[in-house]
Amino acid sequence: MAADCSCGSYRPTDYRILQFFPNLVVVHFKAARNWFVLVQQYVPISFNRTQLRSWFFRAPFPPVDNGWVHRALRQLAAPWLPFIVPYYIRKITAEDNRVCEQLQKTASQVHGFPILSRYEERIAWFEEAYAAAMGEFDQPEPGAQQTKN
Fold first, then answer.
1. Tens digit of pLDDT for each residue in 38-65?
2. By C-alpha distance, which of 50, 60, 58 is closest to 10?
3. Whole-prediction pTM value?
4. What distance in Å separates the CA atoms of residue 131 and residue 51, rounded to the nearest whole number?
5. Is it the case that residue 139 has pLDDT exceeding 50?
């Protein structure tokens, strides 16, 4: 993907999630043979609440076109996409939030390095690289007493 982007020849073929920072995610996905970009920003409101802001755009890539039937279907679907795509984005995001909320109930029981699946290892690598780039430091738990050394 990086090489194709450098050459200016990148064309999406799969659903992708690109996490730029822990609170900024860009997703590209296909709906009705058109590519879209979803930008998600997680904004901390308090120590235990986060607001999710999201924006979506039709990507500048040409639609997937396999003949006149697909062109006709795309033209029929085009007026409905501005209503259908946001509906499904909200639905999927709500499902993701429910899963994350359930995981948070048991997160405090994990001590030490969690066992990650093969694909989740890349998240751990990202977190390690981000911490190194930003200068890792310990933050106290909310409500914890701080002592001066």
1. 999 888 887 777 788 888 888 888 776 6
2. 60
3. 0.61
4. 22
5. yes
C-alpha 70/C-alpha 92 separation (Å) is: 26
Of 45, 49, 29, the residue nearest 37 (C-alpha): 29
Give the end-to-end CA distance of the chain in Å, rounded to a whole number: 49
- Token code pair at residue 10: 């990148």
Query: Could you give the CA distance from residue 12 to residue 61 in angstroms, rounded to a whole number?
Result: 8
The pLDDT tens digits for 80-95 are 888 888 888 888 888 8
* DSSP states along the chain: -HHHHHHT-----S-EEEEEETTEEEEEEEETTEEEEEEEEEEEEETTEEEEEEEEEE-SSPPP--SHHHHHHHHHHGGGHHHHHHHHHHHHHHHHHHHHHHHHHHHTT--SSPP--TTTHHHHHHHHHHHHHHT----PPTTPPP---
Flag whether pLDDT at 137 surpasses 60: no
* Token pair listed for 17: 């999630």
